[in-house]
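This protein record is not my work; I was only asked to verify it. Where you disagree with what is written, explain briefly why. This is what I was given:
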Amino acid sequence: MNREPNAQLIAVMDEAKVSNKGLAKRMTDEAARRGMDLGTTHIAVKRWRDGSGIKPQTAAIMADVLSAKLGRRITPGDLGFFDHTKATASDPIGYPSTVPDVLSMLDGLAQERADAPASGDLIIADADLSSPSCHG
C-alpha cells in the first residue's frame, strides 16, 4: 500500500499540541460521554496520520475533541478525511444506525454556522436523492 501521510491531521494535531495517545484518550472519553464505546488507541491515531481511512462517526468525534482543544470549529474535512476527489471509497457512508450515532451527527450539524462559507465538500449520493424522505 502506498498511502500518503495525512498532512492536514498532522498539522491540526501539532497546532493543538496533542499526542497520538492524548488524542486517542480524548476521543474515547468523548465517545463514552455520548454513551458509545469507541476503543480508539494511539496506534489507530498513528494509522490515520499515516493515511489510513476512518469511519465517519469516528472522524466526527475526532473533529469535536480537536475543536474543543483549539477553541474553534474543526470538521473532518479540515482533518484531511473524506476527500471525494479520490476514487477510494469502498463502502457507502449511509445513515447512522444507532441513536448515539444519530445524536453525534446532529450535534456536529448543530455546531455548523449558517453564515460559514460553503466548503463544496457536500456530496449526496444519487440513491439518497431518490429516497422516500425526499418525496414527503
Summary: The CA atoms of residues 5 and 84 lie 17 Å apart. The radius of gyration is 15 Å. The helical segments are 7-16, 20-33, 42-49, 56-70, 99-110, 126-129. Confidence is low (pLDDT under 50) at residues 84-92.
